Amino acid sequence: MDKEWEKLYVEACRLQGEKKLSKYMKVGSVAAAILTTNGNIYSGDSFANSCAVGLCAERNAIGTMLTNGETEISRIIAVKDNGRIINPCGVCQECMCQLGAYSKNIKIMMSNHEVRTLSELINEWWGNQSDE
User: Fold this and answer.
1) pLDDT for 17-64, tens place per residue?
2) Fewer beta carbons within 10 Å, N or C terminal of the chain?
3) What is the chain's mean pLDDT, rounded?
4) What CA–CA distance (Å, rounded) separates 44 from 65?
């Protein structure tokens, strides 16, 4: 893992740690950190609630990035308990695809510690189809 991945990993691990807010909601089961193409790091925690409209950590971090006026992710990592790296779910991958044409180049740290680009994970994304 190079220094940039290490910084993202440390930031995600700093946030991760499940906290029960009420009998209906918990946060922090998963934490994520992203590095933008401008070199900034944004992070986010997941939250889950009983009505099943929670939010993944990756999309929480993306929302923070967008709120701060940035739109392009260079790298993303997500961690679960004990610093275990996990793959982004399909909803998070879809969200990243919709950020723009550049998104195919987003580097994702996978659970096996290999780095993949988003286009390797979703090589036939529906948004790449022509307007026929």
Assistant:
1) 989 999 999 998 999 999 999 999 999 999 998 887 789 999 999 999
2) C
3) 93
4) 10
What's the per-residue H, E or C state across 9-26?
Answer: HHHHHHHCCCEECCCCEE
DSSP state of 126: G
| Per-residue confidence (pLDDT) for residue 103, from 0 to 100 | 93
Q: Residues with Cβ < 8 Å from 11, sequence gap 6 or more?
A: 33, 41, 43
pLDDT band, very low/low/confident/very high, at 132 (cuts 50, 70, 90) = very low
| Spatial CB neighbours of 103, under 8 Å, sequence gap ≥ 6 | 73, 96, 97, 118
DSSP string covering 81-107: GGG-EEPPPHHHHHHHHTT-GGGGG-E
Q: Are strands 85-86 and 73-79 parallel, antiparallel or unpaired?
A: antiparallel
Q: Is 85 within 8 Å of 31 (Cβ atoms)? A: no
Structure pTM?
0.91
How large is the C-alpha radius of gyration of the chain?
A: 15
